[in-house]
Amino acid sequence: MKRPVRLPLMLLALLCCSAAAHADDTRFSTADLNRVAEVGEPALSRDGNLIVYTVTTANPDRDEPQSDLWRVRYDGSGRVQLTHTPDSNETRPQWSTDGRLIAFLSDRKLDGDASDDDTHNQVWLMPSDGGEARRVTDMPAGVEDFVLSPDGRQLAAIAFDPEYPPGSKKPKHPLPIVTDRFQFKDDDSGWLGNRHKHLYLVDIASGKATVLTPGVHDEQLPAWSPDGKLIAYVTKRGADPDRHLNYDIYVIAPRAGASERQLTTFPGSDLDPYWETRPAWSPDSKRIAYLQSGEDKWIYYAPWQLAIIDVDSGKATLPAPIDRCFTKPRWSPDGHSVYALVEQAEVTHLSRIDLPGGKITALTHGDRFDADLDVSANGRIVVLGGDDLHPPRLSAVEQDQLRPLDDHNAWLDAKRLATTETLRLQGPDGTALDALLVKPVDYVPGRRYPTIVRVHGGPVYQFSREFMPDWQVYAAHGYAVLAVNPRGSSGRGFEFARAIYADWGNKDTQDVLAGVDHVVSLGIADPARLGIGGWSYGAILTDEVISRDTRFKAAIAGAGSGNMYGMYGDDEYAREYELELGTPWAHRDAYDRASYPFLHAGQIKTPTLFQCGERDFNVPCIGAEQMYQALRSQGVPTELVMYPGQHHGLTVPSYLRDRMERNLAWYDRFLKPAGAHP
């Protein structure tokens, strides 16, 4: 197909952006996006002397992200890369109890095996001091998650039913996808069909796998009790598990034919896998710490509470019921307290929750965002967290002090990065609001700047004090960045979050615009050069804002939608829509409100760039396509960019850079007319 005439102008703008970035290599540029190393999944050895973790970087030769295992001593010495696999990834590292072995997931092939390009994750074992790894599992559909037994002889694995009958030859073309499920697609797993994922018991010596939980349901998040007698896991049951969010924790003995036992009975979600948090066994195997939500209808609006359940009696308690979210609980060795991440406005801190009194003591402080942690059997603690100027990094926690253990992004020290400040303001009805402001690099007081308003996803999420690479790129190119946490955001309690329940784009739009008015009144934002944009719900809200207000001169909506009639049944959220909005045929008013941008597209005057991932089942491309078509129909400047093979979150390094460069070019085109400053 011939390219539209406007594309060469876009490419010229891209080249100009690239040239400007290279003119000053101390500024954070689009090329630096793929230099940032992502540290994750810290795991302490039982004796607390060693930590294994993952580091994900961009592999330029394969144009793919690459994840490898690293190891460092608790004292900070001996940091070493354990795996070097440019054609595969290693994740989910775990220590054997004796510390001699590290188990992990990898999609690597066996030596000499070139027969199948469609490799799946399997469990591998390697010596803890490095060396050759051996594959333990051979599950036809791969392994999604696993946990080692305390004696090191077995593992519990989560795996999908085989796609093809055992022993059969893989057909030339994929089999037809047949389903009668209510939820028939998932952005992570793809088309669900009638296959389910179950808990398997695997003998490490032989690799023999035995299914423990067959049936028309799915199991996730396995956790083996320290005494080795039980495996806990999370599942949904009932006549149609796809129709509700009532996850429960079950336990089962690790032997073939064992009967499972339901442990939690709260009529809402007990440990939704969304939070990537396993059931946490107490050291004496008598209790489990986990996360409990509100009732189903509140979906993700209600803060997740720390819960403790007695395994024998099934009695559950909330030791510290506060109006905030907890994640990643870990027990202290004496069982007298639980460590967890606690979210507050704009920050998330590692905290200790004393039992049974429920006193919460923050162990990390200040403007930072903690993402993960681990605790060893002798009480040593490591936390993974970062701030505005540092991507997440691993630190030892000692007497409320942090001692860094990794330095995978030391190159950032040579960059001139923009700092972040918190703004306090009020919404139009007097609601107290917070926003983050990033001023341009080389900001000059008294000068107004083109300003980009960033809108977060979720909707129940928040902008936090964490390293935001795209904000740094914008600031390096002379933009101010405003990130408002409007009603619907997390970190401020249930009432604040549910203020937009079944009413998207109303109060949160008002709050975003209040933030814009505030930075204009401060003399920072140029009211004639305002841009807006976001991804996922951030794009949904972007569509809402530009359909209600014409002040923005450029917008970018990535993986969004303005028409919820069109999304019902095409994305993975039919259950959530019905819980919050009802069905489209029975609740037209609710869907009209949620579809305001598409139904009022004639009011949109803002030039808008729409983006999506071709294989996104979370917010499919139909959402971007329909809004693009509506603006194209009216002659409003617009473009549509679809990234091939990508799901909801882009992963291909060249696509990530392409998106950033296109975003810059789009904003420059409309917010930096010739002769404008800066």
From TrEMBL:
GO terms, biological process: proteolysis
InterPro entries for the chain: 6-blade_b-propeller_TolB-like, AB_hydrolase_fold, Peptidase_S9_cat, WD40
Signal peptide (from-to): 1-23
A GO MF term: serine-type endopeptidase activity
Domain Peptidase S9 prolyl oligopeptidase catalytic: 467-672
UniProt keyword annotations, A-Z: Hydrolase, Protease, Serine protease, Signal
Keyword Glycoprotein: no
Keyword hit for Hydrolase: yes
The protein's name: S9 family peptidase
Gene source species: Dyella soli
